[in-house]
Amino acid sequence: MELLFMVFYGVAVLGLLLIGVMYAILFERKVIGYMQVRIGPNRHGPWGMLQTAADVMKLLMKEDIIPSRVDRKVFIIAPVLAFAPSFMVLATIPWSENLVGANLNIGVLYFIGISSISTIGVLMGGWSSNNKYSLMGAMRGVAQMISYEIPLVLAIIGVVILAGSLNLNDIVYAQRDMGVWFIVPQILGFVIYLIAAIAELNRSPFDLPEAESELVSGYHTEYSGFRMAFFFLAEYVYAIAISALATTLFLGGWLGPILPGVVWFFLKMCIFMFIWFWLRATMPRVRVDQLMSFGWKVLIPLALLNIVITAVIKVWMG
Fold first, then answer.
1. SS3 117
2. Which residues cross the membrane (predicted)?
3. What is the DSSP annotation of 26-55?
4. Cis bond upstream, residue 205 (ω within 30)
5. Is the pLDDT confidence value at 87 over 90?
6. What are the residue ranges spanned by the domains of the chain?
7. For 109-123, what is each residue's pLDDT tens digit?
8. If 0-12 CB within 10 Å is exposed, 13-18 middle and 19+ buried, where does residue 36 land?
9. Count of H helices and E strands in the chain?
């Protein structure tokens, strides 16, 4: 019975996730269109609501082409390896007080460990394509994702110190008991997390692994049809997962008055994602040397400073 429930839960979450990704893309295109004084999607369905569904159908119906000189086995498995971890990390997210897939005592550690696997998928996709642009995009992607994963994790440590637990539910309860969301005492950690998450997801202005003007389409240049869709799906699922984690760590999770907890959770998550869309519409792409220097010389020292300050405050408060 328990196994049946887990299967049902997994299928239900995957279905909702695919719908959520479609409308996250629509929301992004609408927001960017409004900010750039454009109409945005408006052809399919009322207010263009079915535009992303049409785009998905188009991708799925395209011919699946595998170039003759690629490393075929690695080429095929790379998109799956990039996507699967993005779905697995959602198992530990507490959407409300009673709606959580796996209430792990090491939930934060599980999220960080599983999410890092997608780096291998990016590298495999670029290397197996037998294409210099793909390989350069993959190397950029791996360097960027590893470099910015360090400040991302260090930013989370401040929250863990305050909560005294790696359990995501306990972190939400700690914010309730303290009477303040952790974004207030951890504002520096939140800013570091926000910037590092954008770079970790290869999103603008840090979308250097997919820089069209330099690398055609980066590590997935040789991919087409549903295999390319897997890479895009992984990016947006990770965006949802990282936003959900930020909501849990810094914005009080499901905590809020009157409305059900799951409603509050999704409202906070949408606000966090809106900031990403806003930055994409506003800021130009940075140079790769600027990106790497900023991560190692600015974000990591600030994240370490945040840990020291948090630890001192924690000891001083007893």
1. coil
2. 6-26, 74-95, 107-127, 148-166, 178-199, 236-255, 261-279, 299-317
3. HHHHHHHHHHTT---S-SSSGGGTTHHHHH
4. yes
5. no
6. 1-61, 72-317
7. 999 999 888 888 888
8. exposed
9. 13, 0
Q: Are 237 and 86 in contact (CB under 8 A)?
A: yes
Distant-in-sequence, close-in-space partners of 299: CB < 8 Å, separation ≥ 6:
148, 151, 192, 195, 196
**Across all residues in the chain, what is the average pLDDT?**
86
Query: Which residues share a beta bridge with 100?
Result: 94
Q: How far apart are CA 23 and CA 5, in angstroms?
A: 27
Say if residues 221 and 141 touch (Cβ distance below 8 Å): no
What's the one-letter identity of residue 162? L
Report the alpha-carbon distance of residue 106 to residue 208 in Å, rounded: 33
Neighbours of 161 (CB within 10 A): 17
Is 222's pLDDT higher than 90? no
Paired strand residues for 94: 100
Write out the DSSP string of 165-190.
-S-HHHHHHHHHHHTS-TTTTTHHHH
Contacts by 139-142, CB closer than 8 A, 24 or more apart:
140/208, 140/209, 140/215, 140/218, 140/288, 141/202, 141/209, 141/218, 141/219
Beta-carbon contacts of 155 under 8 Å, excluding residues fewer than 6 positions away, are 189, 190, 192, 193, 196, 303, 306
The 10 Å CB-count burial string (b at 16+, else e) for 199-221 is bbbbbbbbbbbbbeeebbbbbbb
pTM of the prediction? Answer: 0.90
Contacts 24+ apart (CB under 8 A), 80-83: 80/121, 80/230, 81/117, 81/118, 81/120, 81/121, 81/124, 82/118, 82/121, 82/122, 82/125, 82/230, 82/231, 82/234, 83/118, 83/121, 83/230, 83/231, 83/233, 83/234, 83/237
Name the phi and psi angles at 207, rounded to 5.
Answer: -90, 45
CA torsion through residues 146, 311, 109, 201, sign: negative
Close Cβ partners of 17 (under 8 Å, ≥ 6 residues apart) = 87, 90, 237, 240
Burial class of residue 289 in the structure, from the number of CB atoms within 10 Å of its CB (0-12 exposed, 13-18 middle, 19+ buried): exposed
